[in-house]
Specification:
Shape: globular
Distance between the termini: 69 Å
Number of strands: 13
Radius of gyration: 19 Å
Largest sheet: 6 strands, parallel
Order of helices and strands: EHEEEEHEHEHEEEEEEH
Helix content: 10-25%
């Protein structure tokens, strides 16, 4: 019987402050202990810890190659990954859906891909790239944070501008941490100009 070196796609997702990057770093460290060659990538717009560093909220860090969303991105990632066994990508939601072609190709080449990122934007809407990866993944590891308001499990990233909830119509991308965002549960999550709230009509019971 002939055996093939099967690739693998692992997606780590959740809200802000749920430990996504820490879990990514843990898996990459374990891969290195197992003598695997690891390539780490980040999006160039995330400069919170510098242009070539990814850092978890508990202070762990790792060198990473910053990449832009560009027509050359697919070929560039493919070339960079030639000598790697494991490719780790942080903040995958910042990448366009064009990256999907490169990642699927690498999986078919037998590479292990581990990505981490937000599944929902500040409006509670799925990020297109992450939504596709969730469907394609061999493993999905969804993490919860702790709601800053009530202490329950949180899977929403509450954006605050000058202490007030952001509007549904604000720009999708605003890179930041605790200066702009809080983890919230569904009950405590607030969104200004929320179109879904306007569509909601309470169920009215009629007496028979």
């Amino acid at each position: 019987m002939q055996y093939h070196n099967q690739g693998r796609l692992e997606v780590i997702c959740g809200s802000m402050f749920s430990g996504k990057t820490e879990e990514l770093l843990r898996r990459l460290r374990r891969a290195e202990i197992a003598k695997k060659r690891v390539l780490t990538i980040k999006n160039h717009i995330d400069t919170r810890s510098g242009t070539t560093i990814i850092t978890s909220h508990n202070g762990n860090l790792r060198e990473a190659h910053p990449l832009e969303n560009s027509p050359a991105m697919v070929n560039l990632i493919t070339r960079m990954a030639e000598d790697a066994d494991v490719i780790g990508i942080d903040e995958i939601q910042f990448f366009s859906t064009e990256i999907l072609h490169a990642l699927r190709s690498l999986v078919h080449q037998g590479k292990r891909i581990v990505v981490a990122g937000l599944d929902l934007d500040f409006r509670g809407e799925p990020f297109p790239t992450v939504a596709s990866l969730l469907a394609l993944a061999d493993e999905v590891y969804k993490l919860n944070a702790i709601c800053i308001s009530c202490g329950e499990n949180a899977h929403f990233s509450q954006r605050l501008i000058n202490g007030a909830p952001a509007s549904f119509y604000d720009p999708i991308i605003l890179v930041g941490a605790s200066e702009f965002y809080e983890a919230r549960c569904r009950s405590c999550f607030v969104l200004k100009d929320n179109p879904y709230k306007a569509m909601y009509k309470p169920l009215v019971r009629t007496q028979l």
